[in-house]
Amino acid sequence: QPELGKPMRNCYSLPGPDFTYGMYMHKRDGGVPEAIGHWDSVKAKPHKRVMPRDFVAMGRAAVGEGCTTAREFALYYKFKDIRCKDKQILRYGCKVPPGVTFGRPPRPPTPFFDVMQHRYKEMWMEHQRARTVVQHVVKKKVGMIGEVRENRTTFLRTHPLPRKEESFWHPQRFQKVWAPHSPSQHQRQLSW
Predict the structure, then answer these.
(1) Domain limits of the chain?
(2) What is the pTM for the complete model shown?
């Protein structure tokens, strides 16, 4: 029976104070001090990449040497081995060529005192004033000359269209009726 107000005890005995709980790493494990104090860097091994053969360059060189038959070309390829050039500048373990800069160049810094003194606002206001002066001068020149660009409305005001004479409306069937010129035509119409 458990004691009153206390949890029930288990039957297992705990190990001593020198016991470590969890899994122990048998490699080099110095804990947090080693992780903070010593940066574990891995040195890159020199990786030599074998490039494929450049048959275009070998064929060009063989023709330059005077090879004409397939046997001569095969012998030339056997004794002269030209490889393709590596187009990638950087590979794992390669050195960066001098003068190469990566990334985008930084934008020029904004002068802080110009921002504080509202210099950009003043420049914009001067630009707007100059633009207004130019527009005013152009408007005066147009007013002095007196030439206004003519559009359809002004043209029709100066040259009105001729008025159409009003005619009474006649039905379509009475449009082609002949006026009787002689009694013979009149008789023909009556006979129809």
Answers:
(1) 49-89, 110-158
(2) 0.26
